[in-house]
Predict the 3D structure of the following.
Amino acid sequence: MKKCLASLALLATAATLPGTVSAATHPVLKPGTFKPVFLVGPKHNIPAYHTPSANLPQWNGSYTDLTGKKITFTQIGGDPSKTNATSKITLLIIPIKMVYGKTNGNMTFDPMTQVVFKGRTVVQNFLKSPLFGRQGALIDYNQGGTDLGNTQYEDAFQRGTWWGNDVSTNTNYHVIYKTKIEPEQTIKVTAAEGSVINNPFGSGKVGTFGPAFGVFDPILQGYMKALTDVNPGVLPVFITYDIYLTSGGCCIGGYHNANGSQPSGQTYSYATYVDSKGAFSQDVSAWTHELGEWMDDPFTDNFVNCNDNSIMEVGDPLEGGPNYGAYPYKLHGFTYNLQSLVFMGYFGAPRTDSVNSWLAFQNDEGNVCPGQ
């Protein structure tokens, strides 16, 4: 797996500002060269396209890591040491239809029309997942004998992150997602940008598209500029179906990024939904990864002293585990795959901050990060 440290070095040479889509020949993707990876986008020092009524709920914290250095960070929600209430975040769901012509596969991958389970489309099944469950359709997360609540998955993770010293007292602390579907967007993929291939991690066909940060990211910038609902007070999330992005090679399952810095920068995220059983980015596993990382490092600038991560990316350390770090959860008759995420102790924070002093949500990490 490529970790953030390596990814950031790569992206430093790949960053492209909005509107400057560069011509590129799509590389021939040879069997045996496919690597599953999540990346951090090239941060843009540009102002938000639309003015919010309020910024995202966010708070600043700090700790002294195991090397004796002070780490400062920004996270989404209220300060768990002072907040005993729910922070609500609106996610704008922006589906993207990918259309491949006769010269590069002759297929269309449409998350709004592709049915994946009992009449539900990709987007419908995505919204019914444990990431966005509502009261009466939620999972009770009991981690090692501690009940973190009947709630959304990322909220349970964040409650577990700060359970030890804060949320166990401020029991009404929550960070909850609300969703709104925006108009679907369409990308007509040229042969220079991508093609339809056999899924290298599973069965069926997938589409490739890239370069991720030379072509795809500028397209997202154009969508955010055109969609007036997009502003720094919400999180736009772009979803594709059976698509892997490329950046010199395949395959990128998702990334999150920011235009500008806290508190008023525009954050955004992208991930794919793959319907091949056991494949990389299966159903909502990539989204578990990206939304967890966005919650704990929304502006991609929470720097840490780790050899495998230069920033506070909570999904990367576990993405290489069995099933790409994901665990099965059944809801609405469908078995979703949700990736485990590391707690702050992994980055050298006091382990007593987290539930059971664990280093990860599923207790599947036994060591702090290399360098601590």
